[in-house]
Amino acid sequence: MTRITMRAIFKPQALAVAVALGCCAQAQAVSFNIGEIEGQFDSSLSVGASWGMRNADRAFVGTVNGGTAQSSTGDDGRLNFKKGETFSKIFKGLHDLELKYGDTGVFVRGKYWYDFELKDEDREFKPISDHNRKEGAKSSGAQILDAFVYHNYSIADLPGTVRAGKQVVSWGESTFIGNSINSINPVDVSAFRRPAPKSRKAWYR
């Protein structure tokens, strides 16, 4: 017998001041049973956009383009976006799937994104290219964040869990002191800086 239940969880998100706007659909959690296997599928979808609040700093623009920098070979990226223009319009998705049989289970988490501004719009000075970029820094893409099996056990009434596979091992958080042991999970800056409501689950590599 298969049973499926759904619940919706809404988490309000604050809008970033002046430069970014994002909205997030209700995070959907679908619980189901297939025989003795328990399952849950979580989804979070979001859209967002970012606008430039000022023109490029003239110190980084070559003199031939109206700036004060000595070279004009590296200013195309700054000249591509002017004040008031969007420099990102993105759709993102994050999904978790967990299947559990007794004390043993499997967990998979993945994300995907598509930036319509960077991927599809024409640029005045230089096209945006994903060539030679790392996967997480591309204008569009998908990544598997976690994929592991686990088993919960108890020895002399002491509970424990063993995992095998791709996973984030959490060592806590350091607020005031950097470069501690939790630096084994560096923040994915590309994911962090994209507009739209942000999920900490998608920040780490």
Summarize the structure.
This protein is mostly beta strands. It has helices spanning 76-79, 116-120, 189-193; strands at residues 2-9, 20-24, 27-34, 37-51, 86-101, 104-115, 140-155, 158-166.
Explain what this protein looks like in three dimensions.
It is a single chain. By secondary structure, this protein is mostly beta strands. It has one domain. 7% of the residues lie in helices and 43% in strands. It is built from 3 helices and 8 strands, in the order E-E-E-E-H-E-E-H-E-E-H. Strands 1, 2, 3, 4, 5, 6, 7 and 8 form an 8-stranded antiparallel β-sheet that branches. The longest helix has 5 residues. The protein is elongated. It starts with a strand and ends in a 12-residue tail after the last helix.
| Measured distance between first and last alpha carbons | 38 Å
Low-confidence stretches: 1-20
User: How much helix is in the residues?
Assistant: under 10%
Rg of Cα set: 22 Å
| Number of continuous helical runs | 3
User: Outline, from the CA principal axes?
Assistant: elongated
Mean pLDDT: 79
Order of helices and strands: EEEEHEEHEEH
The amount of beta strand, in percent, is 35-45%
- Tell me about the biggest sheet? 8 strands, antiparallel
| Count of all domains | 1
The total strand number stands at 8
Overall SS class: mainly beta
